[in-house]
Amino acid sequence: xxxxxxxxxxxxxxxxxxxxxxxxxxxxxxxxxxxxxxxxxxxxxxxxxxxxxxxxxxxxxxxxxxxxxxxxxxxxxxxxxxxxxxxxxxxxxxxxxxxxxxxxxxxxxxxxxxxxxxxxxxxxxxxxxxxxxxxxxxxxxxxxxxxxxxxxxxxxxxxxxxxxxxxxxxxxxxxxxxxxxxxxxxxxxxxxxxxxxxxxxxxxxxxxxxxxxxxxxxxxxxxxxxxxxxxxxxxxxxxxxxxxxxxxxxxxxxxxxxxxxxxxxxxxxxxxxxxxxxxxxxxxxxxxxxxxxxxxxxxxxxxxxxxxxxxxxxxxxxxxxxxxxxxxxxxxxxxxxxxxxxxxxxxxxxxxxxxxxxxxxxxxxxxx
Length: 368
Description:
By secondary structure, the protein is an alpha/beta fold. It has 2 domains: 118 residues, Enolase-like, domain 1, CATH 3.30.390; 235 residues, Alpha-Beta Barrel (TIM Barrel), CATH 3.20.20. The protein contains 13 helices and 15 strands. The longest helix is centred in the N-terminal third of the chain and has 22 residues.
């Protein structure tokens, strides 16, 4: 089963990938979203030529070989393009085997995945955020949620005056003592300020504190983790396996969070989850939207023993992810059940395919 063609379907910030084989099979993948035109260009110019003509079942070995050969170009866009093709290969393998991808990844570590309601916004008042999440908890059975504090990469600046100091207790007041609450700073703090905010989170019984310091500043994150009792999490922006090894070995974080789209696909995200398992720390993959990445991450969490905590589930409406594929996974009782259809268990919507800008790499020829 060799790769005959690699096609991108681009609409808005989204790039869906279809890989076709010499025997007529088709697998569906997706790159990490945003900067879609650049991602699609890099995919066709740098990534696709390596994979054309290769054996689908060698997917993980091909990923390793590709990255060795392109060591001079360790860019996010290269890994985004790689992840789009690699996730389509996993769909192909699952369809060929007649099994869901999670079974190929190691089988059912769990039958369903508990998820937390993940807020992606800071332009909301503490009162409105608490009421919104309480309503979603009543509707979908969420037993955990994550809010935003500080300002992304904000250098100790808050999104609004005193918003962080107000939202932390307000959430606990509204959601009650047994609801698992977490907070994400998106790298917004120096180590000293992160420790101050972490103390407030501890005072109000929060579950974990995500990315307190800018992600390249691993020593600062480690200093925060050392100083606090609340677990510190991180890793969503990181793309280097050696960096994840340093992160885990140093215990710079208490929870590790690889992103399937950023790191270059399921194979490499699984390696981080296995590393976490060996080190005895939880893995909670990052997933910030309701695109196909949500499906990929669900399969990973179903199979990886280290994914013991509620996993991220965005509560924001993103029109660019709507009408792309089906069936959409659903949260029932705060959990998402394991799909049992082959591959990812989804198909693309005809309307999306018709609207998308298409480009195909096939052998030495490209078609726009």
